[in-house]
Structure formats: C-alpha cells, structure tokens
Write a structure and sequence with these properties.
The chain is of the alpha+beta class and about 200 residues long. The protein has five helices and seven strands. The chain has one domain: Double Stranded RNA Binding Domain (2-Layer Sandwich), CATH 3.30.160. Helix 2 crosses helix 5.
Length: about 200
C-alpha cells in the first residue's frame, strides 16, 4: 500500500501527464508578430503553444497564426499627493505611482494553402500592474541628507523602484505571457472549426 501511495505522489508531484495522440494536435507556425519588436510575445506564444494539448509549434506547417498588436498603452491606477521638499507639506497636485500596462492583439489562424481564415479574427486583451516613481521629482529620484550631496535612489533600489518607462519595459514578460495564455485559450475554444483532411 505504501508503494502505491508513493507512486501516486511521485506521478502527481512530477506533473506526469498521459501521452495524447499526436493525431489530435494541430501544427501551427507563428511568423513575425506585427508590433512585437523584440520578439517577446512570439517567444511566450511558442512556449505556451508547445505546452498545450491541442496545438503544437512547427516552423513549417499548414496553419499560420497571424497576430497583430493593436494597442500597447499605460494607464495610471494609483496616485499619491506630492510634498513640498522643504516643509513636507502636501501640495495640491497628485503624482502617479502605479500604472497598468494594457495590450490588445488581433488573432487569426490561416490555412497556408488556401489562404482562408479558419479561426478568427478575434481580439485578446491582457494587462499587468506595476509600481513606478516620478523621475521628474528630485524627492523620488534622490535622497538628500543634510550636508551631503544627493544620492540616486534608483541605483540602490534593486529593481523595486523604476521610472515609468523602465517599469513599462520590465512588465513586458508578465503581460506577454498572460496574452499568450489567453490567445491559446481562445484557439482551444474554437479548435472545433478546424477540419482536418
């Protein structure tokens, strides 16, 4: 009984999966994604497709997955009041300290031979939240101690503090992984539309 229990825990702990037949997997090629300059979405999508049960990535296959990034923008979601550096009294203006990166992509699966759209086009949205500092404010960028020169805080923050632009770039892997997961889920939900010869 202990051996059976050990085998069960071992199989579940190692994420053992029964092999699915390769006949029900559809091979998909992912060409250049418009708007994905550094190829991060392409890389995340290949990883996500390779781990799903319904599709598999192949460099040269009969189906092309065309994706276009329609929008990639930030919207502020968290604020704080700015302070007067000398008196520490709150000012009447607010400063953004937390943003949400939103990406919208259009997806379609195309038959390479007939050039017909098999699935789509459909739109997918993903987001990621990140904290940032106001790089225009000396108070946020530097520590000023009495009788000393200002010291830059970003150098000592270990990546926890970054400007809006830097934090936007840092959030890319998270938001692209979420977008890739949603694209694959959308394809799996519409897989029944593909008629294999």
């Amino acid at each position: 009984m202990h051996k059976l229990y050990f085998l069960l825990v071992l199989c579940l702990g190692c994420r053992y999966q029964f092999e699915t037949g390769s006949d029900d997997q559809i091979l998909v090629c992912i060409p250049y994604i418009k708007g994905d300059i550094q190829g991060q979405l392409n890389r995340a999508l290949i990883r996500e497709i390779s781990t799903c049960d319904g599709f598999n990535y192949c460099y040269d296959s009969s189906y092309l997955l065309h994706i276009t990034i329609l929008a990639d923008k930030d919207e502020p979601i968290g604020y704080r009041y700015d302070r007067n550096p000398g008196s520490q009294i709150l000012r009447k203006n607010i400063v953004s300290v937390e943003n949400r990166r939103l990406i919208t992509a259009e997806v379609e699966l195309v038959d390479k031979e007939s050039n017909c759209v098999i699935i789509g086009p459909f739109r997918v949205k993903a987001n990621a939240d990140f904290d940032c500092i106001n790089s225009d404010s000396l108070r946020d960028v530097a520590v000023v101690l009495p009788f000393q020169k200002p010291q830059r805080m970003i150098d000592f923050s270990l990546g926890q503090l970054d400007s809006v632009e830097g934090a936007h770039d840092d959030s890319a892997s998270v938001v692209y992984q979420a977008l890739a997961r949603k694209i694959v889920e959308g394809l799996l939900a519409q897989k029944w539309q593909i008629k294999e010869p």
